[in-house]
Every structure is written in structure tokens, then in C-alpha cells.
Amino acid sequence: MIRNIVGDEVHILGAGLSGLAAATILARSGKDVHVHEIRKDSGSRFDGDFQGIENWTSEVDFFEELAEWGFDTDEFKSDAFGIIDLIHPDDVVTHPKTDGVAFRVVERGTSSHTIDQGFKRMALEAGVNIHYGARRAPEECDIVAAGPKESSAVAYGEIFETTHRNIVAFQLNDKLAPGAYSYLIVIDGIGLICTCLWRKQRNSGRYLDETIAWYEENYELNRKPLKRVGGKGDFGLPTKYEHEGRFYVGEAGGLQDFMWGFGMRYAITSGVLSAKAILGEFDYEKEVRGRLVPLVRASAINRFLMNRVGDRGFKMVANQWMRDQKRKGDGLSFMRWLYKPGLIRRSLWPVVKIGMLRRKVLSDGRVVHRMPFRKPLNRDIWEPSEEAMKIREEWKSVRKGGGTLSFQESDN
User: Fold this and answer.
1) What is the pLDDT of residue 7?
2) Are 337 and 324 in contact (CB under 8 A)?
3) What is the pLDDT of residue 97?
4) Strand, coil or helix: 244
């Protein structure tokens, strides 16, 4: 349904990227926009960790799209990468690369150079009223852009000072990152080592210790730990994206990448689409289903397949990636292929929906098929290495000296 809010006042729940993107466009079009955020600031859910904005789900560079929508990408710091270290499960390192930009690394948080604060400044300049520390019921809002409420996966990382050059290393290893991956990012003397867990674990901090130990052994980091960070992802697909006159965007709308967890592009795009729908340009439900849902479903199918393979399957994926690059001369083409909703993937969707997702009726009446946090496997039980135990003792010392921890390690 195409609609245009008759009144000038628009209320948005959530001052994350999707909510601020929607608010900025609406305010520039003359709407009296009010954004309600329960946290004290945009980005305060994060703690200075690095995240990537991908460039493979569309032939168009995302920064070109942002410019077309009127967003100034100079408002926040970003670093473009066209090559990464791809670390296979057997520790072989290869290098997927492209002549263009594969992805950009941005920092999340409340520092002035973060993407969260950049979008906040653009919203304020457009005349948006942001109410921090404020509660407002979703039923009283036109756009719902709230963050995750449950966990389908978690990520734990350590931020540190380093003398290493700028780099992104991406590791497929089912031991260090059950069902997922770990990564190393270094930007201008600050590094982040992170492990992602797609199976729930006891004493989950040990996976980060072991991951740090691996990177310490294989990269000359000269690491000086500063703090540890963490976050969760809630992955699910709702049956509707417009419900009782409200538009659901970003994580609130299940518009996330099930495979790798890259969600910022989907979040910002959905925020823009909701604003344009309010302005009467198109039907939000139809636009999201045509533009974003096929990508989300493709990522869910990829996740379903990844959940059923261990390191042997990860090795096959890494080898195929390199063969595809050798044949086509572009490492980005393999990633684009992974997200194309072709006939085979479409035929797998009913199996994925039954085998991986669970139907849930939310308190607002919406129905979502969400991915629960998977149970651990027998192979997840192992003794920590001597190097990882040293990392643990090092972190205890850092904490005593004032190092912060922004997440609670799981003990159950």
C-alpha cells in the first residue's frame, strides 16, 4: 500500500543507522521528525569496534548510493579494502582481491569519527529531534528501528594497539569460531581480533582467547590490549514488513545477513526505503520484498548449508573461492554469486524455513521465522592451549589495570 502521512509529525523508534537514515530524509522533506532512543547516544550499544560495509550484494558501490540519497560519506571515517587474507581451516592463507572496493571498514560507537555519530550529525543538521534516554511504544511510532532482543549468534572481540600495517584477515575455522568465522582488522595502529559463535557455548570467552593466540602466532602484532567488546545478532524473517501502519526496518525488520552478519547496508537501505514510502514514492512492503528480501533469503540458505559443514566444508568453500577468482580474475564475483537468488537456492528455501527457522508470534502480533541459537556439538569440547591460557592471564592483568569489558562471558 502506497501511503503518505498527512500530518507533518513522524515518530521513529531507534536512533541507529536505519532510524537516522529514515529521519534525515524525512526531515529534509519538511517533516517534523522525532526519533526516540532508549540509550544515551547513537552508537552506545557498541564500544569502538570495527565493522564492514559490504559491496557485493549490488553492482553499485554503496557509497555511490549513499551520495545519491544525499548522505555525506566524509562525515565519518572509512577505509576501503580490495584484498584480504583468507585463512583456510588448515591455516593456508590466500588472497581474494578485486580492482574495486570489496568492502569498507568503519568504526562503531560514540567517538566523533564513527559512522553512528556521522549519521547523527547529518540527522541533526536536517532538523531531526532526537530524544535520548526516552521510551516510546512501537505502537506510537511510524517507523520501528529498534535493535536485537534475542540472540541467534554472538561475537566477542579484543581491541588493542599494534604496530602492524592496515589489514583485514578473515578466517574460516570451526574450532575457533563454531559454525562461523574469526577476523583480524587493523586500522591506523588500532586492531580488533574477533570471533563469532553461531553455536551457544559454555565459557565462551575461551574462544576469543584461543583466537587471539592463533593470530599472535601467525601475525607480528606487537599487541597491547585495551578492552574487550561483544555483541549479539538476532536473525529472523517476518511475514510482513509493514504492520498496522508501521514500517519495520533494519534488525527490527529482520533485514540482516544470516551468512556473515554484514547488516549495515541492509539497515541503511531499509531506512531510506521506509522514508520514501512515507513520502508516497512507493509501497514499502513491495519494495523491500523486491530489493532486500531475496538477498536475506539467499544469506539464510547459505547459513543453513554452513551449519551442516565443519572445517572440511569450509576448506571446500575457500578453494572454490580461489578457483573462481583464477578463472574470472575477480575475487568479488564469488561473493556476488553467493547472494544471487537463483533457481537452486529458491528451491531450497522451503527446506531452510522448516529445518533452520522457528515460527514465533511477537507481542505486537507480527509473525517471524527466526533462527534460534544452535546447541553446541561434541567437537566444541576441547582443552585450551598453553598460549590461550597465557592470553587469559594477560587479560586478567589488563582488567586490573582498568581494561573494560562490554559483554558478559557465558557460563551456561
Assistant:
1) 66
2) yes
3) 97
4) coil
The answer to whether 96 and 83 are in contact (CB under 8 A) is: yes
Alpha-carbon dihedral of residues 334, 340, 346, 352, nearest 10 degrees?
60
Query: ∠148-50-178 over CA atoms, to 5°?
Result: 65
Round to whole Å and give the CA distance between 327 and 342: 21
List of E strands, 152-278: 153-161, 167-171, 182-187, 190-197, 224-233, 236-238, 242-243, 246-248
What is the CA 310 to chain-centroid distance, rounded? 22
All domains of the chain in start order, with CATH: 1-82+101-150+236-375 (3.50.50.60), 161-233+382-405 (no CATH)
C-alpha span between 229 and 76 (Å, rounded): 21
202-214 residue pLDDT tens = 888 899 999 999 9
- Closest to 335 measured CA to CA, from 77, 97, 159: 97
Please tell me the distance from the alpha carbon of residue 73 to that of residue 392, in angstroms, as a whole number. 39
Q: Per-residue confidence at 409, pLDDT binned at 50, 70, 90?
A: low
Residue burial 97-111, b: 16+ Cβ < 10 Å; e: rest: bbeebbbbbbbbbbe
Rounded distance between C-alpha atoms, residue 310 and residue 93, angstroms: 18
Residue type, 76: F
DSSP letters, 251-301, are: GGGT-S-TTT---HHHHHHHHHHHHHHHBTSS-HHHHHHHHTHHHHHHHHH
Residue with cell 505502537: 139
What is the amino acid identity at position 339?
Answer: Y
pLDDT tens-digit series, residues 102-147: 999 999 999 999 999 999 999 999 999 999 999 999 999 999 999 7
